[in-house]
Amino acid sequence: MTALREEFTRPAVPQPPGTERPVRRLAVLGDSTAVGLGDPIPGGRWRGVGPLLAEALGAPDYLNVAFTGARARCVRVDQLPEVYRFRPDVAVLVVGMNDALRSDFDAEAVRADLDHVVATLTELGTVVLTVRFHDHGRVFRLPGPLRRALQARIEELNGVTDAVTHARGVPCLDLDVLPEVYQLDAWSVDRLHPSERGHRLLANGFAELLAAAGIAVPAPVPLDCSDGLRTGTHHHVAWLVCKGVPWLWRRGRDLLPYAAALMLRSALPALSALREMPASRGTGRGAEHPERPRLPAKCGD
């Protein structure tokens, strides 16, 4: 998979002046990250990666059909038809984590849904951007078994993304190698959604991929936070009590059986080896088990 990652996440290569393709219509599909959660702005609204990228591209027409909790099937069934009618020049697709965090995760079904979405849009002439996910466990600070279970799921999900992007030849942003992705200021209070800075990093990464694909990017994405709302200690405490603990409980119930299965599978080879060890056979009255040393003789024996 390393070669695939390098192929679809290489740095932008400057295009000859005047040959870049302008973008008039930008669409965003996916889940809560695509919605913009983690980057609140005045007025009780979310901004996020979409508007930041639209501004950098100078796209006058922008459509965001993402919604919180969306899974790959939701994108295919509920979001794709509207985007198809919009006929975007560029489409950003951020989805998959809501699938990976569920006990009914089906990698082949997710692959089929993602492939259908990407194929449908590329047939329109749309440049589709996808993402590979980072190690969420490093950001969440999860306990060992849960972290390993989550990372195994993310690796499955990334394998699905690699297969689709390779088959369809679309650019993919690898979040694991995105600069500063493991710094806490890149994440909102819940450590699941990017903060304002995190969304700016995402938008900048997508802009670089588009520039490498020959798309005009008239303005850089500013990485310095400016007009987003700031969160304080009380926001962290409120989120932990009202959202964080319930969320961890729900996802833990989904992932714990999977984590237990992973631990059992890793232990099976060792158990099998123990069962296959030849039993010691005695050769006489004084024979002893090789792993059980003879105790010192008692006085008078």
For this structure, the CATH topology is Rossmann fold
CATH class: Alpha Beta
Tally of separate domains: 1
Report the sheet-strand fraction.
5-15%
Walkthrough of the structure:
The protein is an alpha/beta fold and 301 residues long. The protein has one domain: 3-Layer(aba) Sandwich (Rossmann fold). It contains ten helices and seven strands. The strands form two sheets. It has a five-stranded parallel β-sheet with strand order 4-1-5-6-7, sandwiched between helices. Strands 2-3 form a two-stranded antiparallel sheet. The N and C termini lie far apart (68 Å). Mean pLDDT is 79; it is low at 1-13, 236-241 and 280-301.
In short:
With 301 residues, the protein is of the alpha/beta class.
Secondary-structure blueprint of this entry?
Elements: H1 2-9, E1 25-30, H2 32-35, E2 40-41, E3 45-46, H3 49-57, E4 61-64, H4 72-86, E5 90-94, H5 97-100, H6 107-123, E6 127-132, H7 136-140, H8 144-168, E7 172-174, H9 196-212, H10 233-276
Parallel strand pairs: 1-4, 1-5, 5-6, 6-7
Antiparallel strand pairs: 2-3
